[in-house]
Amino acid sequence: MSGLLFLVFIGSAVLAMPIAHALLMAAMAAAATSDRVPVDLLVQQMVSQVQSFPLIAIPFFMLTGSLMMGGRLGVALVGVLSTLIGRYHGGPAQVGVLSSTLFGGVSGSAVADASAIGSLLIPWHKRLGYPPAFSAATLAAAATIDILIPPSIPLILFALTANASIAALFVAGILPGMLMCGGFMFMCWWVGRRRNFPRDTTPIVWSAFRTHLLYASPALLLPVLIVLFLRFGIATPTEVAVLSTLYAAVVSAVFYRDLSWKRLNEAMVSAGLATGVVLLVIMASSAIGWLLTYDQMPSGIANWVTQNVHEAWLIIFIMNLIMLFVGMFIDLPAAVLLLTPVFLPLAQSIGMDLTQLGIMMVVNLAIGLYTPPVGTTLFITSALAKVKVGQTVRELGPFYLVAFLVLALVSYVPASILH
Hints:
The chain is mainly alpha-helical and 419 residues long.
């Protein structure tokens, strides 16, 4: 049954069918050709997976991002950072990295980050004379920091699939995200200095800087509040998501005064559509996961690996290779939901903490977002910069180096993320 499942899925994916539909097609084909699995039971498993209270956090966090970044905040945030660091070596590129990191504390979506920050910064980079391919590479890599720092949609999906703590995952993702941010900023400085990239030499207008800082301050405060509420148990992740949406609505209406009925409607529609896509992927992936578990494939893989590979570090290395490979071809939410049931027994067999497994998986899959052939942020930023994907890939070397160093840290030094 597992063989047919993978065959149908790969065939559907090759035909460019959407991932959720390809997963559903594979699950239904496997169930229909098996006399052991009733189709109605498979449908029940699919529906039951989306009847989860913590899932309510996903649309509210998405709505928070739409409300906060749909108005003047994005311009103010970029204005503050460009004034502070835009005049240094690699400064304009560092603005992109910092903007993505701060934006991640609002949206939790790498795709939203790449689209929003890229549309703001790439035209500015071009006016400065910055190489568009390097701009695209910087923003494609930096956008993935979003899915490490809270609120992170992939970490929520992993927590629901693995029955892990969302709060623990959110806190554990902060350090890798900050290390990624610092490493990317250093690479921007190093490349900018070595290749003598242009800098923003416009004189600082302190009145404009203060205005931008004032406008950006509510967004800078939101991720801090999210972490504090979760860390000290003031609210559950779902409650925090609802409170963050309320916070975003009040700030947009009272502080920014740019929350019109039209923008509220657009934000709700955008969040609703994005949530629908995620829920469809969850249903399809849960069907696949249930069928694989029913076929005892995850436990079979775990037993085979533990019997043939006796070193824990080598098992972790193999897990990383598989995650990296899968992340190059499958969208991140679907990859999280598919890989978690497979790697759970393997991680438990070597005593790996679930929180460490979740962070390791998300770091791996984040690298896949800017790696060909199906790198989502890679294609978005390349399109915004109007350069070929191959040109962008050639500029990604330094960022891959940083990402793999962070991956090695979270894989082999669990004390760095576990508290």
